[in-house]
Amino acid sequence: MGAVALSGQSRVARTLSIYVVDVEGGNATLFVSPTGESLLIDTGNIGAGAVRDATRIMDAARDAGLSTIDYLIVTHWHGDHYGGLAELAARIPIAHFIDHGPNVQPAQAVDDFLRDAYPKIYGKGTHSVAKVGETLGLKGFQARIVTSAGQVLTSPLAGAGSANPYCAAFKPGTNNAEDPQSVGSLITFGRFRAVHFGDLTKNKEFELMCPSNRIGTVDVLLGLHHGQDTSNSEVLVHALRPRVAVMNNGTRKGGLPEVMQTLYTSPRFEDLWQIHFSVLSGQEYTTPGLFIANWVDDQAPTMPIGPVPLPAPGPNTPPAPQHDGPAHWIKVSALEDGSFTVTNARNGFSKTYGVVPK
Ligand SMILES: [Zn+2]
């Protein structure tokens, strides 16, 4: 094939592939460079979902032709982010394990995992704690840590640092202990820029983005804490000016009206892509189905027009709509000129976002 390429054919553009895998309201996002280097952010759900989610991550890894995961970042110690790790590590070698350090929200399953299982798993590779400002040792694209263990980037990146006009209207949020510890990453590939903040919550968003925007502008906002309204403040979303967001929501997790409104009103925003329909959006707030990767197993005759209120937790709470059938990812294919194409693996719908001024 090399001879063919040398004989005057135009060079094939180099692509960074990003797979946002359906792990049912958890997170697993896989980045693969043109030469097959890889970074996985999170491993899906704990418990009954772990085998399912590890299998789905492996489907993406196989699609990308990977035989190793070079870097794994576990954003924080919640079961929907580290849960499939043991199952995944049994299926594919993982070279470097990165996390924010110890769990700060005591929970038996996590504490047991960190004491007993995790050291044996990362012992087959290397392990480090993410330091804000550091860049991972990938050659094909850049991954820079911008938040970790409650620390945030303190000095602006090249080209960033202007005053953030949204700071004045910021309203503080509430959070548990672990979400704000999330390891957040800026991924760059030539002029293409994407961010994944794990489940970073509003008050940390404010610390990171105020009074000045130290990150700059991004093309794609990934994750969005499943579309929960404890995250996704305007100081973050509107200041980053993403053209596209890919939300890792569940069937009844995230996609909340406040977040949807923040996205739809964000400057420069073009499209929201979602891993699931969310009944919490209703037809009033949902993005069109073309942009949504997964349905539910048993279709209700219609989606409610208004957003369904989140039921209070308790023994009588009805289960969220189930999705155990075939799972589909959203794939972002980015070029070094900053343009990118997003594809919905369920229906083949794809859209290209051309080069625009930053
Ligand atoms: Zn989460």
Q: How do you describe this structure in short?
A:
The chain is α/β, with parallel strands linked by helices. It is globular.
Name the features:
7-stranded mixed sheet; disordered N terminus; binds zinc ion; 9-stranded mixed sheet; 18 strands; alpha/beta; 358 residues
Query: What spatial form do the alpha-carbon principal axes imply?
Result: globular
Ligands and ions found: zinc ion
How is the main sheet built? 9 strands, mixed
Order of helices and strands: HEEEHEHHEHEEEEEEHEEHEHEHEEE
Estimated radius of gyration: 19 Å
Count of helical regions: 9
Biggest β-sheet: strands ordered side by side in the sheet: 6-5-4-3-2-1-16-17-18
**Coarse structural class:** alpha/beta
Strand content: 15-25%
Give the end-to-end Cα distance, rounded to a whole number of Å.
36 Å
What helical percentage do the residues reach? Answer: 10-25%
Describe this protein's structure.
- The protein is of the alpha/beta class and 358 residues long.
- It has helices spanning 2-6, 49-63, 79-82, 85-89, 108-122, 202-209, 234-240, 257-264, 282-285, and strands spanning 15-20, 29-32, 38-41, 69-73, 94-99, 126-129, 142-148, 151-152, 162-163, 184-189, 192-196, 212-213, 220-223, 244-247, 271-274, 330-335, 340-344, 350-353.
- Strand 16 and strand 17 form a beta hairpin.
- Zinc ion binds next to helix 3.
Which helices and strands, and how do they pair?
Elements: H1 2-6, E1 15-20, E2 29-32, E3 38-41, H2 49-63, E4 69-73, H3 79-82, H4 85-89, E5 94-99, H5 108-122, E6 126-129, E7 142-148, E8 151-152, E9 162-163, E10 184-189, E11 192-196, H6 202-209, E12 212-213, E13 220-223, H7 234-240, E14 244-247, H8 257-264, E15 271-274, H9 282-285, E16 330-335, E17 340-344, E18 350-353
Parallel strand pairs: 3-4, 4-5, 5-6, 11-13, 13-14, 14-15
Antiparallel strand pairs: 1-2, 1-16, 2-3, 7-8, 7-10, 9-12, 10-11, 16-17, 17-18
Bound molecules: zinc ion.
Zinc ion (ZN) is lined by residues 27, 78, 80-81, 199, 226.
